[in-house]
Write a structure and sequence with these properties.
The protein has four helices and no strands. The chain is mainly α. It starts with a helix and ends with a helix.
């Protein structure tokens, strides 16, 4: 589980990142690689993991997760 500060740093960097960078995969990544990267990112930032961490941290994790899902939705096809 990432710390609140790590999540805030990740969230701050997201607007300047493309979908491949968000999932940390190469431009020529296979569908399988994209699925694996999505699952790995989900384990790190899924909001359910941060329910006990406080409202602000949960909100940050939720925003990150939304972008991760968006990246996955676009790249999986």
């Amino acid at each position: 589980m990432a710390s609140a500060e790590q999540l805030k740093t990740w969230l701050a960097a997201l607007p300047s990142q493309h979908y491949y960078a968000i999932l940390q995969v190469r431009f020529d990544a296979s569908r399988s690689d994209i699925v694996k990267a999505f699952h790995a990112a989900s384990l790190t930032c899924h909001p359910d993991r941060y329910v006990e961490a406080g409202e602000e941290t949960h909100a940050v994790a939720t925003e990150i997760f939304k972008r991760v899902v968006e990246a996955y939705s676009v790249l999986k096809d």
